[in-house]
Amino acid sequence: MKQDVKQGVLLYAGKAKQVFSTDDPELLWVYYLDQATALNGKKKVAIDGKGTLNLHISGLLFKELAATGFPTHFVTDMDNQNMLVRRAKMIPLEVVVRNRASGHFVSRFNVTPLRVLDPAIHEFYYKSDALDDPFMNDEQIVALGIAPRATLDTLRTMADQVNTWLTARWARAGIELVDFKLEFGRLADGTLVLADELSPDNMRLIDAQTHASLDKDVFRQDEGPLVPVYAEVLRRLQATQQEVHHV
Length: 247
Ligand code: 5GP
Description:
Elements: E1 7-13, E2 17-22, E3 27-32, E4 35-38, E5 43-46, H1 50-67, E6 74-77, E7 82-86, E8 89-90, E9 93-100, H2 103-109, E10 116-126, E11 135-136, H3 138-143, H4 149-172, E12 175-182, E13 184-186, E14 192-194, E15 203-207, H5 217-220, H6 227-239
Helix pairs in contact: 1-6
Residues 94, 96, 102-105, 133, 179-181, 201-204, 216 line the site of guanosine-5'-monophosphate.
């Protein structure tokens, strides 16, 4: 366990996390904030306990996913609000996978919410708060030098593998995976790894029986307090933790 690294300087302050250097140049320290944001940060509320819940959900999923051999940045969760990760140069793309229609897909195409999408849809968004994370197609990404085509193919394949694994993992917990957003980066040796987080902040989850929201939509749509919902998600994950599924 690499729990003895010292926290260094703040490198990046995001909406839900802060990233610090450590005394090991290969490792970063990620602090999960007690804060929820929506509408690209226009709606922002402090929520006690959210950081700890997201850290535990994310840590549990990263640990299980990494155990299948899938490359991730995860090293260890250090305490209730900090995670140690490998330093990666981030690709400035959000990779979204949709199994059912929700959120922007519903408003863009005026389709029935939760309509099953077969095949699952992949979308890329340029990660830029100033531009409001605009949608990008492959040619736009390649022509602007953000990533070469081969990397986009690899990102789609990796996102599919995560989708297969995560869908099965949530199903064991009585939860359906509607859609999610991933971010990838490269380690110093060039290895592509899944980075960022795996939590109800960056995926839509519904109860398999009732279809009730079990993710940040509760906050986005003012449906009630977020903490009991995230606590229930963590409880279900922990209750179904025994097996390891291979991608
Ligand atoms: P939508 O495009 O419908 O808003 O989002 C699709 C999926 O990606 C949802 O699960 C949503 O949580 C996630 N997502 C999209 N953009 C962002 C973002 O900027 N931050 C986070 N945390 N998740 C996002």
